[in-house]
Design brief:
alpha/beta; Rossmann fold; eight-stranded mixed β-sheet; 8 strands; 16% strand; globular; binds adenosine-5'-diphosphate; binds magnesium ion
Length: 273
């Protein structure tokens, strides 16, 4: 596998869309795996109490006594303690989520700097020590305090949009929330990337949605579109990304292409500045 360019500065990307089932988790783990395969070192932060990203990366997040993102947010563990190496792929790391995290949304409310807990925990010295080039944060399907923490910790937002009915439903609200975070908590935050997912080429609707999203977001939309494929949905059941589960499949190829676009775009942007 050829190498992809490492970013001149670490990129912290939040994968958000408050609709459930649009492909946030699938996108987070497979983009991470696609980057990692090409020599880029990636940390996935699983911020969804369901822990689906942890499962897909083969991390045991049900074991008693592990340090997870919950302990990290509450200040009971540091980044080094909460980070695990993914068992089956080089360059890939994960801070897993446990079911405790479901309570964190409420427990965080009474803590100091409640919106900044994740940002503060993503300690630069510790990330440097691990050699992390990208941090990808998988958000829960809501706009609560966990998602706000993700937006405060990140510079970029990646929004996966499903090529289905009502694809843009809720995206307006997401964008308003991003603006609020920009205005009050994190001026660096911006939507850098839109990825169309679960595309079914047999339907006219999928093309219409893709066209509408491109009209709306222009060049932020990746050229690569992720097709709907049964294999993509099977992989997490084996604790694998699609890139490990079936490297030659259309799903794997499209996520590899999307990862390449993300890595090369950042390179192009920083070079022309
Ligand atoms: P979210 O994190 O936004 O809730 P997921 O990534 O968990 O969404 O995806 C929702 C469901 O759709 C999961 O069962 C997942 O396996 C499946 N899925 C995601 N992407 C694809 C795809 N390209 N083709 C087929 N199934 C997919
Ligand atoms: Mg999810």
């Amino acid at each position: 596998a050829g190498q992809l360019p490492k970013p001149p500065r670490r990129r912290v990307i939040t994968v958000a869309n408050q609709k459930g089932g649009v492909g946030k988790t699938t996108t987070t783990v497979n983009i991470a795996a696609g980057l990692a395969l090409h020599g880029i070192r990636v940390l996935v932060v699983d911020l969804d109490p369901q822990g689906n990203a942890s499962t897909a990366l083969g991390i045991d997040h049900r074991a008693a006594g592990i340090d997870s993102v919950y302990e990290l947010l509450l200040g009971e563990a540091n980044l080094t303690e909460a980070t695990q190496k993914c068992p089956s792929q080089e360059n890939l790391y994960c801070i897993p989520a446990t079911l405790d995290l479901a309570g964190a949304e409420i427990e965080l409310v009474s803590l100091v700097a409640r919106e900044n807990r994740l940002r503060n925990a993503l300690d630069d010295a510790r990330l440097d020590a691990l050699g992390i080039d990208y941090v990808l944060i998988d958000c829960p399907p809501s706009l609560g305090l966990l998602t706000v923490n993700a937006m405060v910790a990140a510079n970029e937002v990646l929004i996966p949009i499903q090529c289905e009915y009502y694809a843009l439903e809720g995206v307006g609200q997401l964008l308003r929330n991003i603006e609020l975070v920009q205005a009050h908590l994190n001026p660096h935050l911006h939507v850098s990337t839109i990825l169309l997912t679960m595309y079914d080429g047999r339907t006219k609707l999928a093309d219409q949605v893709a066209e509408e999203v491109r009209r709306h977001f222009g060049p932020k939309v990746l050229n690569t579109i992720i097709p709907r494929s049964v294999k993509v949905s099977e992989a997490p059941g084996y604790g694998m990304t699609i890139i490990e589960y079936d490297p030659g499949s259309r799903g794997a190829m499209s996520y590899l292409d999307a990862a390449r676009e993300i890595a090369e775009r950042a390179f192009a942007i920083t070079r022309t500045r």
